Amino acid sequence: MADDPGTPSLGDVRPAHRLDESVLDAWLKDHVDGYVGPLSVQQFKGGASNPTYLLTTPAARYVMRKKPPGQLLASAHQVDREYRVMKALGDTPVPVPRMRALCEDESVVGTSFYVMDFLEGRIFRDARLPGMAPAERRAIYDELVRVMTLLHAVDPVAVGLADFGRPGNYFDRQVGRWIKQYRGAETELIPAMEALIAELPPRIPSDDTVTIAHGDYRLENVMFHPTEPRIIAVLDWELCTLGHPLADIGYNCILWHSRSESWGTLDGIDLAASGIPTEAEYVATYARLTGRDEIVDFPFYLAFSLFRLASISQGVFKRNLDGIGSGEPSTDNSGVKILATTALEALRR
Questions:
Q1: What percent of the chain stands above pLDDT 70?
Q2: Are 216 and 183 in contact (CB under 8 A)?
Q3: Helix (H) or strand (E) holding 148
């Protein structure tokens, strides 16, 4: 992880993610307008889902996202959906990179992938924003919530995404999906996960609002302008679907409960002195910008988001354990247990 948020954290391509650069180079010549080799390939460090590469040529730089190798869980790692939603949002107020090409021919690099433009900007890996003035921190968090409301204001039908997901019953389907995903990657009995599986379904709200829901919208998944507190790209759309907007705000607020340095945490921060809003202030800003008086049963949205993250983390843990993930194999599954416990505490508060 780079200390400078404007410097990409890059390294050699991991052995499990290596590809034939000459084959990729030939494909890019045929499918990306203006592409001219030779090609150099590096891999971005970090990230646990879709391997991401920097493609460098003498005249331009591109980013490639691909499915990981190996046996994958159903409905996971759908890079074609990432490509489609960013392509559709290209002419909306939501900032996204320029999409270049999608390849579903697995003979090129081993799995499906897409290519987009590389952008110069800052990605803040540390949600506490060290070294910044309070006013800068506040501006960054205000921008984070503002752009989220821009996404939720987009009409899916108008941008060609009417069939991007099944409208309605979002939380019913999502709770069922993540229970299934968790069971598919389960490696041990985790009592807090069992309690959540029992207690979440009865708390599903009756409100059935439908928007484009990012699914992984947080500070680390957006890119800011090199010097301004302005988002120039929303990234990592793998979990995007037609869904409920309050799932995104619940997911954002995990930050105020997380103790994970790698995922993001505000632990130990004096919020008033730092300029970073409290959870209540952040939620109130979202409600105001979207014309809501309040968010009823916010603990459900927070708990659901933590439960979903625990299910995703269990899948990451299992892939790494099997030697096909982006991280080193480990027998330490404490991260999933902490997320599950935190989710249960949020649901019961």
A1: 94
A2: no
A3: helix 134-153
Taking alpha carbons only, the member of 2, 57, 6 closest to residue 32 is: 57
Residue the block writes with tokens 């983390």: 313
With a cut of 80, say whether residue 5 has pLDDT above it: no
Structure tokens at 279: 């959870």
> Under DSSP, is residue 268 helix (H, G, I), strand (E, B) or coil?
coil
Q: Where are the alpha helices (DSSP H) in 55-133?
A: 79-88
CA–CA distance, 292 with 105 (Å, rounded to integer): 45
Cis peptide bond N-terminal to 5, omega within 30: no
pLDDT digits (tens, 9 = 90+) for 212-221: 999 999 999 9
Q: What is the 3-state secondary structure (H, E, C) of 5-52?
A: CCCCCEECCCHHHCCCHHHHHHHHHHHCCCCCCCCEEEEECCCCCCCE
Give yes or no for a cis peptide into 38 (omega within 30° of 0): yes
Answer for the pair 41, 55: CB distance below 8 angstroms, yes or no. Answer: yes
* Cα–Cα dist 85/162, whole Å: 11
Tokens describing residue 142: 């205000």
Question: What's the confidence (pLDDT) of residue 67?
Answer: 84
- Using CA atoms, how far residue 250 sits from 70, 76, 182, 264, 282, in Å, is 32, 21, 20, 15, 11
Cα separation of 250 and 239, whole Å? 15
